[in-house]
Amino acid sequence: MGSRSVSRIAVLPGDGIGPEVTAAAVRVLRAVIPSCTFGEAPVGAAAIASHGTPLPDETLALARASDAILFGAVGGPGFEDRTPDKRPEASILGLRKAFGLYANVRPSFAFPGLESRSPLRAELVRGMDLVIVRELTGGLYFGPKSLEREDGVLTARDGLVYRDFEIERIVRFAFALARTRRKHVTSVDKSNVLMSSQLWRRITIDVARDFPDITLEHMLVDNAAMQLVRDPRAFDVIVTENMFGDILSDEAAMITGTIGSAPSASLGADPHARGFGIYEPISGTAPDIAGRGIANPAAAILSAALLARFSLGEDEAAARIEDAVAQTLAAGPRTVDLDPPGEAVSTDAFTDAVLARLPAPLASALPS
Ligand code: IPM
Ligand code: MG
Fold first, then answer.
1. Which of 12, 51, 221, 266 is found 20 to 30 A from 230 (Cα to Cα)?
2. Of 210, 233, 255, which residue constitutes the final position of a domain?
3. Residue 262: pLDDT above 90?
4. Structure confidence at residue 297 (pLDDT)
């Protein structure tokens, strides 16, 4: 149901196609949940240009004063020589860490009518419906990093560190999510090589004892990459460490036909707790099409639906947005990532078509 109080959304559009697609998501949220208010702040390369830093204090302050963040994308050319902590990407990593958002939920769903857009044969993809639960605040992304000359040899290090509690909470999250779905968890690791993966597997087996109704399967990450293209429908919930999840989630998204309709939620509590989160397309900045008004806004709009569900408790609004996007994708026309240039529509036209499929807001959702 959700409360009808005012919800404050921090909009951080960022770089590349970020501003175009977040604008579409804001239009949809305004239409469906008129009690949302929006405040915008710079992030990423845009913030480096305006404030000299990828995550300015005022952006962090706006985020802290908000119920959720609608995030676009960050990155861009010209930062290749900077260390990771000074690059545009440091902003999203800093936000995830600052808010303790350890659970990244990345659904990959074969939209009916779009199976022929998959790089795989349509019959392999029809009915695909999986969620990758990616650990988001540990592993290689946040381990000790260094670049030093050792005995005359330039040596770079990125440490892959996991603590028991970090593994336990993300695995619990995945099991709790599986309970709301087909009750199958695939834990992906590299336990034949990595110590951190051995600990991951041990803890996963322990946690599974508390979820006797869920089937647990372990899979090595290289095999998982292969099984995803062999039979994506075999997966329900995949839980994995940060870097493996980054890679596998792009693969899973592309199997649906486009990365342009893949949303994500980054959360800091169990999947049933209504709380703060960051909601963003997984696609990135798409510099090749940025600024032309042709990017697919579906991922951002579906991320707004996840925001409504996980941060605002507006399950019904979320389902309405998801239905409208699915109908629009099925009916076409769609954006250039899915339809041929002559037929494809703009970001705004696609968003108009989604809005046209949304019934007027519930009277109870109007501000009083
Ligand atoms: C993602 C992105 C980010 C990540 C980048 C922009 C830092 O690829 O959200 O998947 O690697 O987490
Ligand atoms: Mg990624």
1. 266
2. 255
3. yes
4. 98
Average pLDDT score, the chain: 95
212 CA distance to ligand 1 middle (Å):
33
Q: What number of other Cβ atoms are within 10 A of residue 100's Cβ? A: 14
Q: Is the CB of 262 under 6 A from ligand 1?
A: no
Query: Is 100 within 8 Å of 74 (Cβ atoms)?
Result: no
CA 10 to ligand 2 center in whole angstroms: 22
- Closest listed ligand to the CA of 251: 2
pLDDT tens figures, 117-169? 999 999 999 999 999 999 999 999 999 999 999 999 999 999 999 999 999 99
Q: Separation of 73 CA from ligand 1 center, angstroms?
A: 9
Confirm or reject: Cβ of 282 under 6 Å from ligand 1.
yes
- Tell me the sheet residues that pair with 10: 39, 69
Test site for ligand 1: of 87, 92, 303, most ligand atoms within 8 A of the Cβ: 92
Range of the domain at 204: 129-255
Model confidence at 269, in pLDDT bands (50, 70, 90)? confident
CA-nearest of 365, 368, 356 to 34 is 365
Residues 1 and 47 in one domain: yes
Quick one: 215 and 273 in the same domain?
no
Q: Decide if 26 is inside a domain.
A: yes
Check whether residue 27 and residue 90 sit in a common domain: yes
Same domain, 177 and 248: yes
| pTM as predicted | 0.95
Reported as a pLDDT band with limits 50, 70 and 90, residue 271 is confident
CA 332 to chain centre: 24
Looking at residue 270, its pLDDT comes to: 75
First to last CA, the chain: 17
Query: For residue 136, which of 44, 216, 240, 273 has the smallest C-alpha distance?
Result: 240
Return the active site residues.
141, 190, 222, 246, 250
